């Protein structure tokens, strides 16, 4: 296997496994999936990991790479983790939490709502986050190691021009139309009446539990966290930091057997009962009631704010970027001046084709470049009702790639190639710093240019 080609694949595909179990809604398949097939220092690779990675491509209708290539990806991932331990490369908890929230947001968008996720997996969103946290942390460490290895690589305009001039003219790619679109999002507010209604419902349930009714039975009947409800609201043991702060703070203030007051979080309203604590972990049950974001959301304030911002922007009193930074409640895009980024590239230019969000596509289809839309309805990735205004910033015409218009894309390719070469050299040297062992059944894979037939 050509390691240079493999590394380019690894950088994009090695982390597919992280959420594959959850994103395709499938559990472990087959038998003997727990067998260890490779080891890198103290990091093990199971046959189930390889199979799940392979199945994640198949379930999404994609052509899966060869299993040898997937195994190499997993081994390179473990090598980066092992070397990170040796070199004391760490990531901050707040960065892990932010990445985890983003991934859960993607899951919510894919499944349509939190309720659908809970019903699909039989677990609360908080429990899923707790289970995924170590995977996300490992992913962040891998990314940091990759950055550390290749961050010194730079490119010059001459290198980009040399690369472009080396492409045969009849092989130059065709670039479709791309657009830059910004948005400013304002969330609807749950009405005071609905909040009071939910609080009173939970107060009534608390009173019933205090009079002797079984908390577990009440959770099974009334909780809208469907995953934990079937288990009497049981959330299992959670490590500190795994749950949202409001929930965790209230739970840890209780003594075993005690119930909390009504706790509001981003997920709704909770009534919590602490079961026990164990070191840095705690075990609780809860009853969750969620606001109805369709019937119980007041859009008056959001509409008024967006109308005012639109008027200020159109009169050149305020720039769209400044308005987004200070006012948009989509924090991911607020920091980019409201520009919506392509998730696969991280670039604020979207390909104008069927891959675009249909709601966005049809919205700008009625707009001209430079226009700002009136406030329109919007559903956030986590299912909340909102309003937004759109800014149709720019549109490029479809064309054959050229150095002037596509310099940024070409430069990214050249930089990626240089970084891949740096990573290739690093992997060659790093092999001597870590212990790598591969089961005999994969001896023909020649992972990283090596043939391993060690028994584990």
How would you describe this protein?
There is one protein chain. The chain contains 17 helices and 15 strands. The chain is of the alpha+beta class. A four-stranded antiparallel sheet has the order 11-4-13-12. Strands 6-9-8-7 form a four-stranded antiparallel sheet, with helices on both faces. It has a three-stranded antiparallel sheet with strand order 2-1-15. The protein is flat and about 80 Å long. The chain has three domains: 197 residues, Triger factor/SurA peptide-binding fold, CATH 1.10.4030; 111 residues, Chitinase A, domain 3 (Roll), CATH 3.10.50; 98 residues, Chitinase A, domain 3 (Roll). InterPro entries: OMP_Chaperone_SurA (IPR050280), PPIase_dom_sf (IPR046357), PPIase_PpiC (IPR000297), Trigger_fact/SurA_dom_sf (IPR027304). This is Chaperone SurA. Pfam families: Rotamase.
């Amino acid at each position: 296997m050509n390691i240079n080609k493999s590394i380019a694949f690894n950088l994009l595909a090695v982390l597919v496994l992280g959420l594959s179990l959850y994103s395709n809604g499938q559990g472990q398949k087959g038998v003997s999936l727990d067998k260890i097939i490779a080891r890198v220092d103290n990091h093990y690779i199971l046959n189930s990991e390889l199979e799940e990675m392979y199945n994640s491509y198949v379930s999404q209708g994609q052509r899966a790479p060869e299993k040898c290539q997937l195994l190499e990806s997993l081994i390179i991932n473990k090598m980066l983790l092992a070397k990170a331990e040796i070199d004391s490369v760490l990531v901050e908890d707040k960065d892990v939490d932010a990445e985890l929230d983003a991934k859960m947001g993607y899951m919510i968008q894919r499944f349509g709502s939190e309720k659908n996720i809970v019903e699909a997996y039989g677990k609360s969103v908080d429990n899923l986050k707790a289970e995924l946290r170590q995977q996300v942390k490992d992913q962040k460490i891998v990314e940091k190691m990759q950055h550390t290895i290749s961050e010194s690589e730079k490119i010059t305009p001459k290198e980009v021009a040399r690369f472009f001039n080396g492409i045969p003219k009849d092989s130059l790619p065709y670039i479709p139309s791309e657009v830059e679109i910004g948005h400013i999002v304002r969330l609807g507010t749950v009405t005071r009446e609905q909040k009071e209604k939910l609080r009173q419902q939970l107060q009534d349930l608390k009173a019933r539990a205090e009079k002797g009714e079984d908390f577990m039975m009440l959770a099974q009947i009334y909780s809208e966290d469907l995953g934990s409800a079937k288990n009497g609201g049981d959330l299992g043991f959670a490590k500190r930091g795994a749950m949202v702060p409001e929930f965790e703070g209230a739970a840890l203030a209780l003594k075993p057997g005690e119930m909390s007051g009504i706790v509001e979080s981003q997920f709704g309203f909770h009534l919590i009962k602490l079961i026990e604590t164990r070191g840095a972990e705690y075990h609780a049950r809860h009853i969750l009631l969620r606001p109805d974001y369709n019937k119980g959301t007041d859009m008056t304030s959001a509409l008024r704010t967006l109308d005012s911002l639109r008027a200020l922007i159109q009169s050149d009193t305020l720039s769209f970027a400044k308005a987004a930074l200070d006012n948009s409640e989509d924090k991911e895009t607020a920091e980019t001046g409201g520009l919506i980024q392509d998730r696969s590239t991280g670039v604020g230019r979207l390909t104008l084709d069927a891959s675009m969000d249909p709601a966005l596509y049809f919205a700008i289809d009625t707009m001209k470049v430079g226009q700002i839309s009136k406030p329109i309805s919007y559903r956030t990735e986590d299912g909340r009702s909102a309003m937004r205004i759109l800014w149709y910033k720019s549109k490029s015409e479809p064309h054959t790639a050229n150095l002037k218009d596509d310099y940024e894309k070409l430069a990214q390719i050249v930089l990626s190639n240089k970084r891949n070469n740096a990573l290739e050299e690093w992997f060659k040297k790093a092999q001597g710093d870590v212990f790598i062992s591969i089961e005999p059944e994969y001896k023909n894979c020649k992972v990283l240019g090596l043939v391993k037939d060690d028994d584990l």
